[in-house]
Amino acid sequence: MRTRTAALSAVLLGALAVPSAATARTSAAPPGVDAPPMGWNSRALACSVSETAVRRAADALADGPLAAAGYRYVIVDGCWTAAGRDASGGLVADPARFPSGIRALADYVHGKGLKLGLGLSAGTKACAGGGAGAYRNEAADGALLRSWGVDYLKYDWCSIPTADFPGKNVQQIAQILYPAMRQALGDGIAFAMNNEEGSTVPWLWGRQVATTWRTNVVTKPLTDSYAHMVDVWETNMLRHEYAGPGSWNDPDLLQAGLGKMTEREYRAQFSLWAIGASPLILQADPAKAPAAIVANPKVIAVNQDRLGVQSRYARTDGWYHALVKPLENGDSAVVLFNESDRAATIAVTAAKLKLPRAPHYRVEDLWTGEVAATQGDLAAYVPAHGAVMYRVATRDAGGDRAAPLVTLETDPAATLGEDRLTTLTAGREGEIVTRLVNTGGTKKLTGAEIALTLPDGWRARPVTPAASPEKLAAGEAFTVTWAVTPPAGVTAGRYEIGAKASFDGRAEVTSSAAALVAQAP
Length: 521
Known about the structure:
Elements: H1 4-15, E1 38-41, H2 51-63, H3 65-69, E2 73-76, H4 102-111, E3 115-121, H5 138-148, E4 152-156, H6 170-185, E5 190-194, E6 212-214, H7 226-237, E7 248-250, H8 263-275, E8 280-282, H9 291-294, H10 297-303, E9 312-316, E10 320-326, E11 332-338, E12 344-348, H11 350-353, E13 361-365, E14 371-374, E15 378-382, E16 387-393, E17 407-410, E18 423-425, E19 430-437, E20 449-453, E21 459-462, E22 477-485, E23 493-503, E24 507-518
Parallel strand pairs: 1-2, 1-8, 2-3, 3-4, 4-5, 5-6, 6-7, 18-24
Antiparallel strand pairs: 9-10, 10-11, 11-16, 12-15, 13-14, 13-16, 17-19, 19-22, 20-23, 21-22, 23-24
Helix pairs in contact: 5-6, 7-8, 8-10
C-alpha cells in the first residue's frame, strides 16, 4: 500500500505533468500578451503594502506619462493573503491591508484602464507576510483568481514541502507544481515563474509553461546597486537562447527612481532591459519614476517589438559590450555598454552585427534623437557605467543627407582596458587629449573644431591647434592636446570634463569623461 505522500505525488505527476513535445505550445503568453509585460510592482513597499497604496500607484500610473508609454500591470508582490483560508478553503485577502478584497481592487484598477497582478507562492506559505500559499489548492486558487479578474500572477517558490516528493529533485518538483497553476489559470492570465535562487532552472523548460521566468541565481532580489545590476544582467544574457516570442527571460525589476544609482546607470539598465526583451516592471513609486528614462517611446518600442527576440552579444571582452537585437521591420537595435569605471570607445562592425549588406546605414541615437549615417562601422565614446542605444536601418539610409557618424573622445585611455582615471593636480597644468574620428565615413568631414567644457574656475589652452585645416576621410582622426588647470583651492575628488566638436559648418557632437583631482603635496 502506497503512503499518502507517494499517492499525492503520483496524482500530480499523472494529471499535471509537463506538456509533451507533441502537445506543448510554442508560446506561453496569453492572448493579448505579445510583448514583454510592462507595469509596476509593490516590492519596495514590502508588507506596508495596502489597497490604498496600490490604488494610489494605479492613479499615478494611469494619470501620468507611464500608461501612455505602455505600462499596464499593477502588481501586488506579496503580503496580501491572510494567514488562513475561509471555511470552504478559499484564499482570503488580509483584512487589515485589503479590507475591500481583491475583487474590488481589480475593479478599481480595471476602471483605470490597467491590469491587476498578484504574487502567490507555490508552497504552503507566502514568501513574506505569513500568508497562505497555493500548494495543493492550485485548481481552486486559479479559478478564484480568474473570478476576481486578476490578469497576472507572479508565482513564487517558497515553503515547498519537498518531502512530499520522494526521489525528486527541485527541478522535477517545479515541473509538477508550476504547470499545475498554469493549467488552473487558463490562457487569459500572464504567468510569471519567480524562483529567485534559480534552483528550478526554469529557463531550460519554462517556455512551454510561463510568460516570463526569473533568471537570477542569487537568493535575494535585485538591489538598487550598479554592481548587482550588472551581475544580474550578465547572468540573464547567458540564458538568451531559451527566450523567444511569447516567453521571456526576466532579470528582475527596474530600479530607476529608487535613488541609489546615478541617472546614467539607470539609463544603462533601461537600455539593457529594453534590448533584452525583458519585462519592464518598475519598483519605484510611479509618481517618482523618471519619465525621461522609463517612458522613452523609442527605447520602449525596441522592447515591445513584435518579433520578440532577446539581444545577443555582437562582441564583448568583459568590460565593453556590443549587443544587437533584430526588429520586426528589418531594422536592428544596438546597445554599446561600458561596464568599466572609465569612458571608452566601443566599436563594432556591420558584419559582427550581422546587418544586411547596404551601401549606407541610417543610425538613430534613441536617447538623443540624433541621426547619422555610416558605411558599416558603428562606434561611440561611452561614459563609464553608460550605454548608447541605436536603431540601425538599411532602408532610406540617407547617406548623402545625414552627417557621417562620428566618435568624439574626451581623455581616452592610452591602452584599451585601462580603468584608472586621469589624475590632475589642483593649481597645476595637466594634459588632456580630445579626438574626433570620422567613423561613419559616408563623406569627408570639413572644418572640424573642438572645444572643452570645464567645471567653474578651471582653465584650458590648446597645446595643438583646435581646428583642423584638413578634411577627415573615412576612419581618419583629428586630435587636440590641451593643458588643463584645476583651481588651486579646488576640493579633491572626481570631476567631469566635456568636449564639443563641430564640423561641416553645422553638425555638432559632445562627449565627456571623468578625471580625478588631487591636492599638491
